[in-house]
Amino acid sequence: MPVAFVRRSGRARRCAGKRGASDVVDFGRVGGEHVAPAVLSDSLTKRFGKLTAVDDLSFALEPGTITGFLGPNGAGKTTTLRMLLGLAAPTSGRALVFGEPYAALERPALRVGSVLEATDFHPGRSGRDHLRMLARAVDLTDERVEEVLRLVELDAAASRRVKGYSLGMRQRLGLASALLGDPELLVLDEPANGLDPEGIRWLRDFLRAFAAERRTVLISSHVLAEVAQTVDQVLIINRGKLVIESSLEQLTARVGGSVRIRSPDPARLRDALKREGIDATSSNDHALLVHGTTSDRVGDIAFAAGVPVHELVAEGSSLEEVFLDLTSESQP
Predict the structure, then answer these.
(1) Most-buried pick from 36, 45, 136, 164 (CB within 10 A)?
(2) 247 has which bridge partners?
(3) 3-state secondary structure string, 170-189?
(4) Which of the 8 DSSP states describes residue 161?
(5) What residue ranges define each of the domains in the chain, with the CATH number in brackets?
(6) Angle, helices 127-137/142-151, rounded to nearest 10 degrees
(7) If pLDDT is split at 50, 70 and 90, which confidence band does 233 have?
(8) Both ends of the chain: CA-CA distance in Å?
(9) Which residues are CB-neighbours of 65 under 8 A, at least 6 positions away?
(10) What's the rounded Cα separation, in Å, for the pair 266 and 14?
(11) Pairwise pLDDT comparison (142 vs 116), residue with the higher score
(12) Distance of alpha carbon 101 from alpha carbon 17, whole angstroms
């Protein structure tokens, strides 16, 4: 189902915070103004006694992107998100949203929406009453509550008590809470947890439409297959340290990878590759998979041997393979 956003009228958006131009890390200028990163982690460090949960972590997220924030359990993801949202104070370094600490934002609920847990609901309240309570705390109307209920497709169940909601319905209610202020940034922890396949596809389409309006999404998730279909870029941390910050395309091409080639004469193609010291394996659909070389090299060999080619494509590793490889590399 197509996703359409319902915006509140009279909303003025800011490109940068109140800080001076010299204090803002920017991606460039829009209309002569500095444009701050939507999220900036600058040498961010958090210690709990002798335990270092986040260690000198630096990254920046450009407006209009969807970023997957990945790492093993205990890697420091939740602690990082809590510092970004002003729920924990850094030991050192800075956590900024739109060029300012979260607490310094004017009416932060209208700029940042977050869901760190999908269980923070009073079980005896209806979904509608939960949202109305939150809306009144930030001077939003009941009309806006109805808008976000429709937006997350929870309006039919809005009068039911939350204790009767499935986990997937609670996830939608949490997302509705985050969207109340029509934010520019969404910070979501495991947003696909409990959703059925249709709900996951709905969430993917929703987030893409959100980012298409130059708004920004940061997703922490363990569902790597779904992350790979949703995000533009990936941050991977392990033991509190940044392992890699990369676009998804560049990342999945980084580790291993293969070249897929299909020919009406696969035996002759395999022989031509073997003469060049390149081994090929057959796939289930009668193509050949070649490792350890480039698609250009494979194509040149086929051309020189006079072997017709019907398909030739470079295939990167899956995000799961890359994740396991990189987090293993970063182990001491």
Answers:
(1) 36
(2) 233
(3) HHHHHHHHHHCCCCCEEEEE
(4) B
(5) 21-248 (3.40.50.300), 258-315 (3.30.70.100)
(6) 130
(7) very high
(8) 46
(9) 38, 211, 216, 217, 232, 233
(10) 59
(11) 142
(12) 10
- Beta 185-189 vs 112-115: how paired, if at all? parallel
Q: CA 172 to CA 188: how far, in whole Å?
A: 12
Given the structure tokens 């209610």, which residue do they identify? Answer: 173
Q: Would you give the DSSP letter of residue 11?
A: P
Q: What is the pLDDT of residues 314-331, one digit of tens each?
A: 766 667 767 777 777 555
Total number of residues shown for the chain:
332
Which of 94, 23, 16 lies closest to 57, judged by CA?
Answer: 94
How far apart CA 125 and CA 15 sit, in angstroms, is 37
Q: Please state the separation of Cα 241 from the chain's center in Å.
A: 18
Determine the 3-state secondary structure of 283 from DSSP.
coil
Mean pLDDT lowest among 48-62, 70-84, 163-177, 223-237: 223-237
Distance CA(127)–CA(15), nearest Å, equals 33
Amino acid of residue 153: E
* Residues 86 and 94: beta-carbon distance below 8 Å: no
Q: Where are the alpha helices (DSSP H) in the chain?
A: 77-84, 127-137, 142-151, 167-179, 197-212, 224-230, 248-252, 266-275, 295-304, 319-329
Read off the tokens for 56: 């000198």
Residues sharing a CB contact under 8 Å with residue 268, sequence separation 6 or more, in sequence order = 305, 307
Sheet holding 288-290, edge to edge: 280-282, 288-290, 258-262, 311-315
Residue 23 has pLDDT above 50, yes or no: no
Please check whether residue 202 is in contact with residue 130, taking contact to mean a CB–CB distance below 8 angstroms: no
Residue 224: is its pLDDT beyond 60?
Answer: yes
Angle between the N-to-C axes of helices 127-137 and 167-179, in degrees from 0 to 180, rounded to the nearest 10: 20
Half-sphere exposure at residue 224, Cβ-oriented, CA atoms within 13 angstroms: 16
Using pLDDT thresholds of 50, 70 and 90, give the confidence band for residue 6: very low
